[in-house]
Amino acid sequence: MAKPDRDAEFTAFVSARQAWLRRVAYLLCGDWHRADDLVQSSITKLYTHWHRASRADNVDGYARRTLVNTYLAEQRAGWARWTILHRFGAGSGAADPEPDPAGAVGLDLDLDLDLDLREALGRLPPRQRATVVLRYYCDLSVEQTAQLMGCSTGNVKSQSARGLATLRNLLDPSLIPVTEGPR
Questions:
Q1: Are residues 9 and 26 in the same domain?
Q2: DSSP secondary structure string, 58-127?
Q3: Are residues 113 and 38 in the same domain?
Q4: Do residue 146 and residue 101 come from a single domain?
Q5: Is the dihedral of CA 34, 156, 174, 172 positive or negative?
Q6: pLDDT (mean) for 147-170
Q7: Highest mean pLDDT among 21-30, 69-78, 110-119, 165-174
Q8: For residues 19 and 99, which has the higher predicted lDDT (pLDDT)?
Q9: So where does this one cross the membrane (predicted)?
Q10: Domain range for residue 169?
Q11: pLDDT tens digit string along 103-154?
Q12: Are residues 53 and 112 in the same domain?
């Protein structure tokens, strides 16, 4: 494929999926500025591998995997801690309360529950948080999540169970809407 065609195809993909990637990144990290940084890093990595990504059966899945891998790598490297401490002052670590200018994160909850859920997600360890976001926001199966995160299905199940248990403990049960049937 000629480079102009490749660039046009990549630009069209990014234009169509950038808001979605930003929402997923926000759910992973809990900070809109950092979500923008994660998306930018992921898009850069995606561009360098576009020749491979564009041939993938599921380009959205490839982009999502790139985003999650970027997030988890930064968590392991301590980049996020250094950036948060220096952006907000030593010891602060507070999440940026900036609203999503592109609209709500898309959780379809009332505002109080949405804010409580975002705060509770922020308290989960990075891998639990990534597992919960992928399983319940991105609606991936256990197998898909395991493949994306490069771990076993048992690990996904245990991370999901621990993450959900922590969320249940942190959230007021009266705020959680009752749904019919098991998820």
A1: yes
A2: -HHHHHHHHHHHHHHHHHHHTHHHHHHHHHH-TTT-PPP----TT---S----HHHHHHHHHHHHTS-HH
A3: no
A4: no
A5: negative
A6: 91
A7: 21-30
A8: 19
A9: none
A10: 107-176
A11: 444 445 566 666 777 888 888 999 999 999 999 889 999 999 999 898 999 9
A12: no
